[in-house]
Amino acid sequence: MIKATVVIPNLNGAGWLKDSIESIWAQTMQDFELIVVDNASTDESLDIARSYVGRERYTLIENDRNTGFSYAVNQGIRAAKGEFVALFNNDAFAEPDWLEQLISAAQQTPQIFAVSSLMIRHFERELADDAGDYVTILGFACKRGDGMKLHRYQKPCRVFSACGGAALYRKSILDEIGLFDEHFFAYYEDVDISWRANSLGYKNVYCPTARCYHICGATTGAVRYNPFKSIQSGRNSILLPYKNMPILMFLLNLPFLTAGYLLKAVMFRLRGFGPAYGQGFREALKVMGKLEKPKFRLKNLPNYLLIQLWLFVDTFRYAIYRVQRLFHIT
What is the pLDDT of residues 66-88, one digit of tens each? Predict the structure, then answer.
């Protein structure tokens, strides 16, 4: 078995895919394979992906439609031969030791499921883009460190979720807990799979020495929000806690979640995306019955309680972050 498989999902990434792929080939740790999954690109990026066909340790999967992020990376994971699977956005560019650092962090204990990178804003390299993700009691999934100075995020730590834009996953645990939920299509799917791992007692960690640079939103066109992202946020922010919380936990948190969804509805309306957010909300109601909710297990009660504590604590983390951004404190 090779040590790792790197999976890059691609959709119309002509402007950055080649540089992304080349940053992977330049890794100091060469015991890996690369799989690119193309979602019916109509620009030159498909030709770029095809140009590597025939190279050792390279596989190209071509889809005839845009299947969404979750489906595409699942195709790559199913084809993977590595002990670990690293997901990497087509608009991200890795430092040469990125993969080596991720694997080193994962090998500290077999209980580690996912390792999150230090993702740095490509055009503002003094600022972080993502240093692991977290979830609030209001149902918001948030990027830790977004827009903040890099020096704040130089210590490894446990995080609620690894950002799937540049993260390493242990394949044996993926085989146990299942792959990315394809009902999520795009956004929140990485938080969902990390939540599942947390519920079973596995750990997700952040590795500050695994660095990459991220354009952010290059594929979806959503640096902050657009109609597509608003629909996805409206749907998936509801599906995330509904799917992963045991029923009593969901009922306990329902007043907070309701307040959060109302706050988001107002926010999206003020930004001009109220109809799109409402469409996502309606889609969530239709999808709920199709979700495969993890079974409640009494032995996992300590894990559920830890998650509940995280939700409360990270709500305060989010509030502090919003105040810092309001006063331009980075």
Answer: 999 999 999 999 999 999 999 99
Helices 189-199 and 301-326, axial angle in degrees (round to 10): 140
Residue with tokens 């409402």: 278
Encoding tokens for residue 83? Answer: 């002990």
| Cα distance between residue 165 and residue 330, in whole Å | 23
Rounded to 5 degrees, φ, ψ at 148 are: -100, 160
Say which residues have a Cβ less than 8 Å from residue 117's Cβ, sequence separation at least 6. Answer: 98, 102, 130, 163, 166, 167, 207, 210, 211, 212
Task: Classify residue 279 as exposed, middle or buried by CB count within 10 Å of its CB (0-12, 13-18, 19+).
Answer: middle
| CA distance between the termini of the chain | 43
* 2-10 and 82-88 beta bridge pairing: parallel
| Gap between the Cα atoms of 100 and 127, Å rounded | 23
pLDDT, tens digit, 9 for 90 and up, residues 290-330: 999 998 999 999 999 999 999 999 999 999 999 999 999 99
Tell me the CA distances in angstroms from 155 to 57, 197, 207, one per residue in order: 33, 22, 8
Taking the C-alpha atoms of residue 330 and residue 324, their distance in angstroms, rounded to an integer, is 7
pTM of whole model > 0.90? yes
